[in-house]
Amino acid sequence: MEELEHTCPHPRTTLTEPAIFARETSCDCLAPHEKLTIAQARRGTPVDRPVRVYADGIFDLFHSGHARALMQAKNLFPNTYLIVGVCSDELTHKYKGFTVMTEHERYEALRHCRYVDEVLRDAPWTLTPEFLEKHKIDFVAHDDIPYSSAGSEDVYKHIKEAGMFVPTQRTEGISTSDIITRIVRDYDVYARRNLQRGYTAKELNVSYINEKKYRLQNQVDRMKEKVRTVEEKSKHFVYRVEEKSHDLIQKWEEKSREFIGNFLELFGPDGTWKQVFQERSGRMLSYALSPRESPCNSPPRELSPLRSPSPPSPPTRWHSARPSPPTSPKGASASISSMSEGDEDEK
After folding, report:
1. How far apart are CA 303 and CA 339, in angstroms?
2. Hey, which bits of the chain come out as E strands?
3. Model pLDDT for residues 37-86, shown as the tens digit of each residue
4. What is the pTM of this model?
5. Rounded to whole angstroms, how far apart are CA atoms 8 and 321?
């Protein structure tokens, strides 16, 4: 059993290295190879070796549709060893047409697909029993659409009849033909793109006139891009100015409302200034109508009988003596009565 484990390759458990190339002379699997049915393979038997599944194709411009088909083939059974056959340029150009990638580029693309365990170079266009026996192939995986080529309505017809065919599903919306159609449809765009990237007109098989036309179009596009950039910057600047203006107007309105409110609070009909003015006016009016009285404890003014009043001093040159006005009406009447009494004493 241990010898079988060393002589039979197992599916890769890591993705640190690319897939191996198949030997051209013989298969690496030396374990006893018994014919399996699909039901047996799905149950996980046999236990001493993986189920060897073969998938072939051109794989030009390797894309996600190819990878999904190989993923399905890899997951057909619990223990699958996936061998991928890639046809050479000679066979492909003869039966299908010219390829974009060379055969060596296509080999390397398949080696670095995570689902592939082994790559078989220069795969045959039609699978023969001798080829299947040589590589110990249990099942062949491909989409079940009849593939007419090389004078046959379906090159997988005899595989299907032998019960060795397992179908996979195509991925709609992507294929090598679709990708090439996009490039051909937008040929001018890609030619201009590569001219911009430094490729020469000779490398692109572009005529002198078309080269000048493409370069002129590239200059026009650059000018359009600059104008578009300036427009975007202008729009951004105008937007910033409008935003600032809106903020300034809003702040001005707030300050105006605040100023008007303060003004009305001071000078309005019920404002603070009116109340202060009314209070001061009432106070002044009350002072005018009822002036303060002189102190009642002040002694009355009397003239001494022994001493006559001194004559009034003559007025000086610079100052004139004026009697101070009485502070109140009672004070005025008291001074008048005292003066009359003094006159009577003198008489």
Report:
1. 9
2. 20-21, 51-57, 80-86, 118-121, 139-143, 165-168
3. 888 888 887 777 899 999 999 999 999 999 999 999 999 999 999 999 99
4. 0.60
5. 146
